[in-house]
Fold these 4 entries.
Entry 1:
Amino acid sequence: MVPLSVFFPYAPIEAHRKRDAARRDLAAIFDRVIQARREANAHEPDVLQTFIDARYRDGSRLTNDQVLGMLIAVLFAGQHTSSITSTWTGLLTIANKERVMPTLEGEQKKVMEKHGGKIDFDVLAEMDELHYAIKEALRMHPPLIMLLRQCHKPFKVTTSKGKEFVVPKGHIVATSPAFSHRLNNVFSDADTYKPSRFRQPSPEDKEKFASFIGFGGGRHGCMGETFAFMQIKTIWSILLRNFEFELVGKLPEPDYEGMVVGPKHPCTIRYKRRKL
């Protein structure tokens, strides 16, 4: 998908032709699996079984094509976003290694010595500095450039400059995390990678409502936020303790041609194995 896909999902462009061909290939793979499980009346403890067993309010079940759509959504919703955020976290940390890396390495030493090298959910939750580093990467380079919500009833909005206006019922409201996360009246030195801005007791994103929307916000915020942080923390905890990194060339620019915004290529680092 590309940004155009949001507004014209069936536009006759090369990206959509590749998308549709890939979906047909996935359908051929998953359809056999779904149908075989239905015919065998088998029950497995996995997400596929959850979709097969799901029922609408009228009692009807999901078709094989609908199950496929749900599987694709689950597969890609967390894959691109987490992998790209992992990449940006590494690139920004390495690009600012003299300023940022000592704090992260010191935390890894402290936490690992305390728990004897063990990593689990509770241990990862103690890695606050790594959490801030990931969150700051998300602030500067959110994977999704646009979030959309439909207005179900009119509501009044007051801007930071005091201007008021009403959003009518039925309108689509769009916000860009990539833009709002760079507002200097919300985040100090907004174009600077500064994980410390999220430290307690006065994190910058808590001074104004919904300042940080890397995972969306409100009732329909991303359900995978906690899992995403744990996943990326696991990756970078291991990498920080086992390798030294150096950025080769300049920090890559964001690639806004993709639906999920990662760095442009080349995206090159040099690394050397070590034990922290």
Entry 2:
Amino acid sequence: MKIQQGNVDRAPSTLDLFTTPKVCGLVVVENENPDAEAVRRSSNDTSPENQSISPKSMVVVYASTFDNVNSTWSYAEKLKSWGVKVDDAVISHCGTCGSCSNPHDIRIYDETKNTLTGDAKRCAFRALVGGRGLTGGCLRKNVGFTNDCNECWIDNIMCDVRKCLYVCMWNEIFGRQFEHNSGGKEVLNPCKTCDEKLCGPAFTNCAGANRRRSGIVSDIARDDKNELCMVADDGWWLREDLANEWRRGNWKMNENPELEAT
């Protein structure tokens, strides 16, 4: 336990993961559909439905990491100057894009903001007896992340087992009397601190989005002024147009629309 706690004490702060100027930006582009005219020409069907196939019917959402908010908007303007039809630009969250940077997973962050910590903790206990398999199944059943995002959460829990097990066991057995609530929220305890400092960097690199990076106030007491993303567009994950394009598979993660515009 002392060795693990020493590793935690020596580990650097993770505040820079949440104060970084980098953002995951969404650029919504209406692309020409190169197959539309070919479909019309090759078909003998003269019905209105066939003739209505539009060469500008394909909407694509590009999710990319930008240096800052202004560079996201500047990039959208540059695409417009090339004649690309840009419908919108959205700041998804602070930091780099990752496997959880989509409307489904961030909506779950929002809807479970007061319960996710407890649900993840209960699933983490499964790792002690069933490893990744039981943990992953628990998260899928009780939380419902996408598969890729779920893998990031499983990786984080298994990291906790390797690096924080004894610190967390000590906290569970002896530390509960030292856990205080601030306005009904849990204060960061030694177990959560170990998780954030020793496993947090790898998790955010994998997931991209978490609650703080998405500007979502969670069930853990934080210094929201300094730890919460203030530039993410509030509630964008509730937009049906973006959610529909994600469900249709029209999202391109960390791909550059510049390549398709040239």
Entry 3:
Amino acid sequence: MCGWSQMVTLFCYIHSVIANCIHLLVQDLEALCEPALTAMNKVNWSVVEAVGDQSSYVTAVTSHIKQVLPNIRDNLASARKYFTQFCIKFVNSFIPQFVNHLYRCKPISTVGAEQLLLDTHSLKTVLLDLPSIGSQVARKAPASFTKIVVKGMTKAEMILKVVMSPADPIQAFVDNYLKLLDDTDTSNFQKVLEMKGLKRSDQNMMLELFKTRLPSQTTTGRGQHGATAVREETSRIKRLEKLIKKKL
């Protein structure tokens, strides 16, 4: 029993060390990309006159990824699952950071939003190719990884599409926001209004309308509880039916 306990302890320790190492690798790459995201916030997106190639901050992020990824992959060649874990942890951390920096870009003109949308799509393409960047062997990225990237970067794209949409009529703007983002967080809606550079009075009016569009917490909670109860009852009945069949 003592030997088995020691083995479990050792296994947990090794697992912890590996997790910490992956976390440090993710932090290092994030630190390299952070100045580029900060540079994105320093651009005056309200005076952009035309959409061009991808912005310099995207080129910088892409360059850092292409320099770092091959080395990490080569060193984890004999333990590919850890490289996959690194990729998943990186996008899980980088994409929310990118979205947060995107919220700080304000105000944004329609053309500025179009340029940011192009930049976001370029970053999305790079991130989707993350597991195979610099590799001579073309490998399909794990479905779980692809799902994370698509979901996170699609949110960024939808934020920009809302910013590009006209603020008037306000009912249509609010409904379009809820349709594209399905986000009932009032603070996030406020951030989008600030990205559009709307007057404070107009923002307050939209916020009030936004709040009337939100489902009642009481109703939502009751509905979720009711659905859970139904699932539990259905599961209980199925288990009972199996038991009866066995006895018969």
Entry 4:
Amino acid sequence: MDISRRAFDVILMSGQSNMSGRGGIQVKHLEDGSVYKAWDRIVPSECEAEKGTILRLAAALEWEEAQEPLHEDIDTGKICGVGPGLVFATTVLQYYKTLGESVPAIGLVPCAVGGTQIKEWEKGGHLYDQMIQRATVASKRGTLRALLWYQGESDTLAAENAVEFQQRLKTLITNVRSDLHIENLPVIQVGITAVNHPFPELLEKVRQAQLALELPGVFYVDASGLPLLEDNIHLNLEAQIKLGKMLADVYIKCILVE
């Protein structure tokens, strides 16, 4: 796909399943009593954009037209649905259009993998190295503008992980900025949420660690209160649409305008 004649803003998307996207995932019950999950394949109008304006870096490190599920070839072995990425990108493009200036293309770089703890994103591990590789490849074509990070649910199931979460997150962001040679790469992190959590005190500990993180250029949006699937932890389609707009709002106000 020829995108060489227009400005190109690159957005890195990483973390775990709620960034990957489970919007529209349905639980199917068969007559024999078995249960399976499937995406309903409903793509909301908020994801629609003019052809060639939003691209994604596929697992094969090639640019292609962005479409849901954005993480299908990254978060493999799981059922992926709609995440916040496309809604984020379309909302940002709408903002650019209001300026009456040249509108860049947006390149989304999906890296999220469901069910992962933050220690699995340590420098030198597969997930971290893959994310840096993908960001590096993407940056050869455009300008890396921000990292969208949504992770932490898997760290609420053991006290040790919750206690270590903030320092691990701080180290992760520092390493990403260093390895990508962008000292103040903006990061927008999403505050985790869940309902009827088995360890509510650990959920709150991780949430407070996210909120209290003190690093320049790190911004925060809160998923608390957004509607969830029946598993009480994954955002539903409506929530993913709202989250995409929330992320775009912070990106516009705190990164583009600044």
